[in-house]
Amino acid sequence: MGTDSELFSLVYFSRSTVEPRKVDAEIRSILDSARKKNPEYEVTGALLFSRGFFAQVLEGSLTSVQSTLEKIRSDPRHTEISVLSCRPIAKRNFADWSMAYAEPDRDGTVSERINGILENASCIDCDDAGSEVLSVLQMLITGSETISSGT
Length: 151
Hints:
Blueprint: E1 7-16, H1 23-41, E2 44-50, E3 53-60, H2 62-73, E4 78-89, E5 100-102, H3 109-119, H4 126-142
């Protein structure tokens, strides 16, 4: 499918099993772990938590992003994991972050956009959903929706 020298972007979403009162502490734990381990595997990306869902972009070699996803699949904080896209990319969209965290916007515009994707993901085209999640994360983190296209 791809060589380890190629960059891939994997976008997934999952339903959280975390009790609402523990969400902040668990997100800190996830980010601390990712920021410690991801540089070793040359994985970058971004995480969003909104209304009981996680959405995440992982970037790196195919082996690295798939291995990271397998670790997430075994994490009891995630259930109903769905991969929206996994495709080669020309360059990283989140190169400066071992794992950025995108907090939902205060006015709710982006939150509604992402929640619409996540709540209806089984009813929509996965490639479109993956691109939309990537776009929303990019906008929340950098203030820009410009996303590099795949190769």
